[in-house]
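User: Continuing from earlier, I have the next pair ready.

Assistant: Great, send them over.

User: Here they are, in order.

Assistant: Folding the first of the pair now:
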Amino acid sequence: MKHWLGLLLAAALPAHATEVNVIGLFPGKAVVVIGRGAPRTLSVGDTVEGVKLLAADSKGATLEVDGKRETLQMGQHFETAAQTGERGSVTLFPNERGHYLADGQVNGGHVRFLVDTGATMVSLPSTDASRLGIDWKKGKRAYSRTANGVTAVYVVTLDSVTVGGITLYNVEGLVHDAAGLDTALLGMSFLGRTEMRREGQNLTLVKRF
């Protein structure tokens, strides 16, 4: 149970919404985080806070969440709809290295982010940007110094960036050409539009109005 091999990510959502994140998988069992709660180990057939485990193995868990059936792999999360007009938030838990990692979306496509308050903008490797359908070479060209040296970057506007219960629109971003970046960074062009709160080791982001 000590090696869950997953990313801890749970959203602090408005009322009438449920978010579940799978952080551990075993034959007939799954370790999940529901909302902002502590990790729970569910056996097939168990129901906790409206979440029922239907099946589980090393590849994924099939859950029924508030009556909706969903199959999730390690580190994936699912949320039911929240009431409109309410303030969105997400709580991130550090991994074993103390880094905050989050599954999110850019322009509707899945992205795995590393939270980086030292990054001025949301930053994407060119491979991710191309997969998301971003015509990044039409962006404004600049240069950035990374651990791999100086690399070309392109300034773009991302239609939307979503992490947990937060969706922001028209977010300034950087696309790194070649091998200048291997992980998408959740930088200050997103973080600066949220309130960042430390709760022990956890980091909660709350969308500003």
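And the other member of the pair:
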Amino acid sequence: MEYLSLIGTVTILNVLAAMSPGPDFVVVVRNSLCYSRRSGVYTSLGISAGLLIHLFYCAAGIGLIISKSVVLFSIIKVLGAGYLIYLGAASILSKSSRLDLKETAIGTDMEPFQALKSGFLTNVLNPKVTLFLLSMFTFVIGKDTPLYVILIISVIILLTALIWFSIVSTFFTQKKVQKVFFKYEHLINTFLGLILIFLGVKVALTFLTL
């Protein structure tokens, strides 16, 4: 297949990008630990939905327009930074979610829509995702790349995120992992919150350098 090497290259780059610690990873871990595996999976679905938005405008060429417009890209940066800082503050100020691991925690789980929304907003407001996908479409995928190849690559990107973050959610909802979490819940929530705030501030600082 003529474009097999291209698809392979994009797949490897995307897997490495998905596995790199970032806002998406932190949100999935926190929702999985504080609520449930289901919440983590729904958060993963939200992340994939956010990626779908990025893929659409990158493939349509809108990503290039955003990258060339200081105003539009600055708006994305400010919104993304603000949301990350909000999530971080909420994590630090959150009350204990200590559960009895032997019983079903009725009423303590996130609503599916809330989990979806947290994953979606975290991803869609992350300007680094815009830059990563735009760089792939600009430098890896040429203007003459057939539509079916772009569709295959888009599906691979979506499935990679969904599968990887579902694995992350499954790992962090194991009972042994949960026991450690519940023992040090406040410290872990504070640590994850500080990471989110740090990432938000980092995005905001890049806005100031524009």
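Worth noting for the second one:
The two ends are 42 Å apart (CA to CA). The chain has one domain: 25-95+108-208.
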